[in-house]
Amino acid sequence: TKEWVTGTLQQGIRITIPDEHYPATSKAFRVGCKAGKNVCLLNVYVQSRESEVIGQVAHCAYSSNVRLRPITVNPENNGVTLICGPDGKAFPDDYMNHHCTELDECKERPYSAVFPGFSSSFWTGEASGVAGATLTIPKDQFPSTAQTIYLGCTGHPDDKQVTCVVPVNIEEVAKPAGAGSNPGGGSQPDQSSEKRDGEQVNKGKPPTGGSGGATTGKQNASQNAKDKGETGGENGDSPVLRGDAKLT
Q: Residue spans with biased composition (Basic and acidic residues) (predicted)?
């Protein structure tokens, strides 16, 4: 842009290229001066930028094959951006639906193997664009076990294929305890019944009639004992029967 060029013809012209605008492959151009029929030309060679990771962004260049340091993705930093630039393209070709499973050889696997609810809409932008392409993982789509996927770009400077690969470490998110015992999470209390000492015992819930059921049973036994006493029990004492007790 014009802002990159400063100075005057008398004092000299200076061209300054911002670091972020260095190309992914080496470039060359010519500039010069002309006076009448006389021309003076200068060949300018622009070295390619270095491949690097800055934050959650992988910038790929094509001076040589490179393996970038890993980028970690978690619910707090749930996105990764891949910038191949106009001199390169992302791989695999269908990078918005498939990723590589190995560092040195791209064995393709669908993202749905890692994120069951995956949609290509998780991707925005274009890897060959200036701003690159960004993969954003919704917080509820993180796997329950840690995973590593590989993204990359390839370029062809001087008719040679050069690759730039970045590992993406995806952290696991623990599922709620008991999820899977029942759809609502947690586990249901045991509602089975068993007999014990002649009584019906309901596990996990109170006896029919609420907590007053036991009291009612005792009142009935006491009333029966009283009735027997009134009808002439021995010495006026009537035994109260409990459980498996027998009257002899």
A: 192-202
